[in-house]
Amino acid sequence: MAKVTISDFIIAILDLAEAESRALQESAENFMKRQREAFKESLFKNGWMAAWIAAAAAAVIGALGFFAWGFYNWFALYLSETAAPFAAGGLLLVFASVFAMLASKLRSGDG
Fold first, then answer.
1. Residue 78 lies in domain
2. Greatest CA separation found in the chain?
């Protein structure tokens, strides 16, 4: 039976520590690489999502403009040219109030 000395034991422990540290470093590098790729993919998807939301918001604003213009023209047929913008604005204000009330109910959890 071979005699194991303290120095052999210390060398074996240090070799084991070196191998474990290399494995840990490689594992951490692989983990960070996957995380970086997932972050880039998520950032790309979120960027496109924000672009589509901005495009949808621009379309909604344009549609609301045409909606208000249509109300103005419709009220101009039956009211005076001076009263038509106020009537259209009042109607749009009523719609906005209803939408705000619905949003408030949904946010508070009542709806």
1. 6-108
2. 114
What span, in angstroms and rounded, lies between the C-alpha atoms of 98 and 92?
10
Backbone angles phi, psi at 2, to 5 degrees: -80, 145
Tell me, yes or no, whether 95 lies in a domain.
yes
**Entry pTM:** 0.50
Residue 78 domain-assigned (yes or no): yes
Instruction: Tell me the two tokens of residue 86.
Output: 């106020």
Q: Are residues 69 and 92 in contact, defined by beta-carbon separation less than 8 angstroms?
A: no
The Cα 94–Cα 85 span in angstroms is 14
Give 9-63 pLDDT, tens digit per residue: 899 899 899 999 999 899 989 889 998 888 888 888 888 888 888 999 999 899 9
Domain assignment of residue 42, yes or no: yes
